[in-house]
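Fold this complex.
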Amino acid sequence: MGKKISFSCPMPEFDFDTITLAHGSGGLLTNKLLDQGVFSLFSNEYLDRQHDGAVFYNEGKLAFSTDSFVVSPIFFPGGNIGDLSMNGTMNDLAMCGAVPKFISLGLIIEEGLSVRELWKILESIKGISDAFDVQVVTGDTKVVERGKGDKIFINTSGIGVVKKQANIGIERIKEGDRILVSGNIATHGMTIMSVRKGLEFQTALESDTQYIGDTALELIDNFGSDIKFLRDPTRGGLATVLNEIAGKLELSIEIEEALLPILHESKSACELLGLDPIYVANEGLFVAVVSPEISGEALDFLKQNEKCEGAAFIGSVTSAYPKKVVVKSAIGGRRIASMLPGEQLPRIC
Amino acid sequence: MKYLDEYRDAGIVKEYLEKIHKLVNRPWSVMEICGGQTHSLVKNGIVDLLPEDVTMVHGPGCPVCVTSAELIDKAVQIALDEDSILCSFGDMLRVPGSSKSLQKAKAEGGDVRIVYSPLDAVNLALDQQDKNVVFFAVGFETTAPVNALSVLQAKKLGLENYLLLVSHVLVPPAMEALLEDEETRIDGFLAAGHVCTVMGTSEYIPVAEKYRIPIVVTGFEPVDLLKGLFSCIQQLEKGTYKLENQYKRVVKAQGNRKARQLIEEVFEISDRSWRGIGVLPNSGYSLREAYKQFNADARFELKSKGGSAGNKCIAGEILKGLKKPVDCPEFRGSCNPENPLGAPMVSSEGACAAYYNYRNV
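Structure:
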């Protein structure tokens, strides 16, 4: 996993230490929070205008994506909801072959959140924004009554500029194409499980939340249209993304259990809780479907990147079981990995 | 992973598969009791690697699957009660009752919490003394000790708001019921390793002798399952009918004495209704008189509308091993994990869900 981005900026001296309904009312307190806090922290030429929206010029093809973040707890080993909200949307843009440029930031805060916690979250967002030159250009803040939220929900939407060499499209996938993953699976999901209320267990796991899109875009720079499809397997995990791909094609995806990269800690935690790691959420990870001719080189390229510890070839696109994802078990049997009907529910025994 | 990888070793699996292939001279039907074993057999693709003459019959050992619709109805009623919180293990949530599941009750505003241990429910009862906190005590002998412990803990803390909705079932009476059933054809059993970890192995000896049937206590990993199956078929081919323990690294003949004492203290044996099978005498646990204050059945006026959920569900025949999930006309049609007609499609331990999720390659 790559280095964690850290950014700190002294918190302004607010004359309040928790967020109340009044901070979302549009009145004086809202202004204080925004002027002294959000606007000064994220200051840029678009945001500074404080208009109803950001206006900018652009040439070329654009990608546009949105995602909402409701993780609980909001702070977890390896990151917080702010990191997720930036990395998530930026990764989504990169999966379209686009370089992320502009972000909108919507905060829905539950009354009672401490200003200190809010500031930490904003600092994380700012850190990522600076590190990857992505600007927060518009946003919104609302406060809901206690009990009507879960500390803070964040929505981010992003706009990115699509790379000229990018030719990402599910319809381009053909029999024989190879499936690569950029790192260990299930790390984020199992980290969150380890700190979830009522389930706390001790582990050295840290979330791998990170902007991995730059690596994906470098793959496109190097291998152009041989990179046929990219996807970050967040909620629902690897199996869900592979099912989405197989479901749209008359082809199957066959993966080998023994090839799946996973940290020992995540694997053990999955065993303990009766969860299948291929359905567990990931954050700083992507799946690439690539031409067989360049798959070895592409994998070597990923392996050289410190963000891609664990990058691996996991399987191929075949025609044997149309629309299905098939897992070859470590002992040589085969099973299908279908879509989950809902959340993975912890088992009794 | 230590203690796991060596039991998933492809080389040892191959060796035992070859041994089994060489050993088999006649067709045999062997039932694995536990849903966890079914799950492992299907997930790892073992059923397809066995000789054609060996039929694995998937047994009733999935507590979620055998919990009656009547008890789900009661749990739903508690969940929808304004002054109560219903705590449950996760996989009970989607099981259909006669009108709705706990998941639906939750969506309608019922307070349903997924917990990993009944002791979490006791802590919740301590925090929320203005609410009745009811733990849905589902499971075989395996989960009974910790459920008993939760009652003792609540008693120690003086909690009057902690209750159990007991739905415990026992393995040996179910095995006997299956053997008495004229329709079923079972030549040997792989007994459930985890249940024996608690209870020990002695109660299976009279079953093996009475019905002249080999019983092999078996674990859950591929190597465990194949070693158990090998021993069972070895006995069948020789014509012996002993109790064997192939899961010695975990199961001791006397079981776990402390766990059994906990069960003995809090629970007594009673009749229990099994989904799809009906009432089996002496096949469950209920709270003893001394602990009746913790009995949710007594505290609430619990009513079940009766009737079975999903009339088309052939859960009984599945759980008795008379039919395979694929023999059911509703399988993959109107019955699937998103909209299960019956419990075996809900739990990941259920035979139908295992087939749905892992088998149609």
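The longest strand of chain B covers residues 278-287.
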